[in-house]
Specification:
Elements lengths: L8 E6 L3 H17 L3 E6 L3 H4 L16 H8 L5 E5 L11 E6 L7 E6 H9 L6 E4 L3 H10 L15 E4 L5 H9 L5 E5 H8 L2 H11 L2 E6 L13 E6 L2 H5 L2 H7 L4 H16 L7 E9 L2 E10 L2 E8 L11 E3 L13 E3 L3 E5 L9 E4 L16 E4 L2 H9 L6 E2 L4 H9 L2 H7 L7 E6 L8 E10 L4 H8 L3 E4 L2 H10 L7 E4 L3 H8 L5 E2 L3 H8 L9
Parallel strand pairs: 1-2, 1-3, 6-7, 6-8, 14-15, 14-22, 17-18, 17-20, 18-19, 20-21, 22-23, 23-24
Antiparallel strand pairs: 3-10, 4-10, 5-8, 5-9, 11-12, 12-13, 16-21
């Protein structure tokens, strides 16, 4: 055997928390499955693990979870280090480089809540502000600003207030403090819980810790995580190539996940553009949907609110004067004479019945006009964050949203072992989809709660549509109906959402630019699509 290919023993540096060791064990098993080499652990205590009475942004210095690991790597005490990528600073020490970025798990945040608290909120009996434990500045801002919109309304229709309280420590410690009643709810990274649930030793502890808790998976449109949340970064010492002929580097490259590497690189670029640091109150997410980057950036920076949500696809400059928007206009939206709203699509509620016990996906706000059909026992999910907020206004607790990832995203969330730990026997309940009569779904049984019909255009509509040069469609049947009466619009600019509608345009070989929604379309029309982070 070549000297460079002899069986070696490599040392993995890791923090000592349950989550850090679980992540390191996962990488160890992956590397040993790819090679004859052996891998052992060396536990390193970091400043962030030892100072737990203050939030990180109040500590002096930086790199609170990595400094000591960097020193161990450079001193050859360890050969590689497994990090939660979100813990790595923007600038890394000389002599250390990235070996691999693994496929990330879920980059969502999850709200864990005591069951009695949830029940009181639904019943309208929770009169205090919801006290949520977290120490991350981005979570503090986004939870206090946006979470009230996702909680069931009070009996008088007003919003619950949310306040935060500092929470530090490892996952076990944080959940125990929630169980002991120090908080009404806490927020954690879903990726960390997922990794713990997939490790047999850690899963037993986690299942016991989560007993009696309920949850809400927070939609990334309003609650993007930390830059690179959910991804593992494996670093190695540059000089190790001289020791093993590049063997470790070649092994690590087999763990690299290009799509994750692309997305987290973009997130960290945005993070750095705001100055970086653990004090930064900005959540950042980049994900790929149908080959397009979707970016969500929310928080506060230099006393300014940051709210960006967009699809990073190239867009032409709009030189037109009138645009069609395929939704019904609200009273406040009728003032802009450059916009033509849809007036031909009509919806009408249908009599329907849901099973008493079911996981229910509500496909749109149209699908749940009658809140009495949904009972408190249903496990409720929404197609997107707007539908989720509509259901909350009706007094429902919604466990999460498919968001822009579609039913495939929701399927992945429900296949997560954490869902089983929290939902218990409800995880095996049948699935139903509240939607319209013509809809199709792979998620569950269709329950048609409304139907759509399309009217023929009158003279006024004909004049308005004829002068539009850009169109945003809410469904493919809507597009087909208008084209039947206005074939001349085929060659104009067409836009739609990223989900099923975009797929239908592609299947019919019609060029349409995907966007995150109507607001991004309006931003483009107004020449202010989003902040430029590129």
């Amino acid at each position: 055997m070549n000297a460079n290919h002899k069986v070696r023993t490599y040392t993995i540096g890791s923090r000592g928390s349950l989550l850090a060791l679980t992540q390191a064990r996962f990488i160890k098993a992956s590397l040993e499955s790819l090679s004859p080499h052996k891998f052992e652990f060396h536990i390193v205590k970091t400043q962030g693990d030892q100072v737990l009475n203050l939030p990180l942004w109040q500590l002096e210095g930086k790199d609170f979870f990595t400094k000591e690991l960097d020193e161990a790597l450079l001193s050859k005490t360890v050969d590689l280090v497994v990090h939660s990528y979100k813990d790595l600073g923007s600038e890394r020490p000389d002599g250390i480089e990235m070996g691999a970025i693994t496929e990330r798990a879920f980059c969502h945040d999850i709200l864990l809540v005591r069951k009695e608290t949830k029940q009181k909120i639904i019943a309208g009996e929770h009169t205090d502000a919801l006290l949520v434990g977290t120490s991350a500045p981005r979570r503090i801002h986004n939870l206090e600003k946006y979470l009230p919109n996702f909680l069931p309304r009070k009996k008088d229709g007003s919003l619950h207030s949310v306040t935060t309280k500092i929470l530090r420590g490892n996952v076990n410690t944080r959940i125990k403090k929630l169980q002991q009643g120090e908080y009404h709810a806490i927020t954690l990274a879903l990726a960390g819980l997922t990794r713990l649930s997939r490790d047999p030793d850690s899963a037993a502890q986690l299942k016991e810790l989560l007993f009696g808790l309920d949850f809400m998976i927070l939609p990334r449109t309003s609650f993007p995580g930390a830059a690179a949340q959910g991804a593992l970064a494996i670093e190695l010492r540059q000089s190790i190539d001289a020791e093993d002929g590049g063997e470790l580097r070649r092994l690590l490259k087999q763990l690299e996940h290009p799509e994750t590497a692309h997305c987290v690189s973009f997130e960290r670029k945005i993070f750095k553009s705001f100055g970086g640091g653990c004090h930064l109150a900005i959540g950042i997410f980049c994900g790929q949907v149908a080959g397009h980057d979707v970016i969500s950036v929310r928080g506060t920076h230099e006393n300014k609110i940051v709210e960006d949500f967009y699809c990073n696809s190239p867009l032409p400059k709009w030189d037109g004067h009138h645009a069609f928007i395929g939704i019904h206009a609200k009273k406040s939206e009728n003032t802009n004479t450059n916009y033509v709203y849809d007036s031909l699509m009509q919806t009408r509620s249908r009599e329907h019945q849901l099973p008493d016990k079911a996981i229910v996906l509500v496909a749109s706000s149209h699908a749940a006009p009658d809140a009495t059909k949904i009972n408190s026992e249903h496990l409720l999910f929404a197609s997107g964050s707007k539908t989720m907020m509509t259901l909350a206004q009706q007094g429902h607790w919604v466990c999460g949203a498919a968001d822009f990832g579609g039913e495939q995203e929701l399927e992945a969330l429900l296949n997560n072992p954490i869902f089983g730990f929290l939902a218990l026997e409800k995880a095996a309940w049948p699935r139903s989809v509240l939607t319209h009569t013509e809809s199709r779904s792979s998620f569950g049984k269709i329950i048609a709660s409304y139907e759509r019909t399309f009217l023929p255009p009158d003279a006024e509509v004909k004049v308005k549509i004829a002068r539009c040069d850009a169109f945003y469609w809410s469904s493919y049947p809507q597009y087909a109906h208008y084209v039947k009466y206005f074939p001349e619009i085929k060659n104009r600019q067409h836009f739609c959402g990223l989900g099923k509608t975009y797929g239908e345009f592609q299947n019919n070989n019609i060029v349409a630019t995907p966007l995150t929604g109507v607001q991004e379309f309006k931003d483009w029309l107004g020449g202010s699509r989003h902040a430029d982070f590129t």
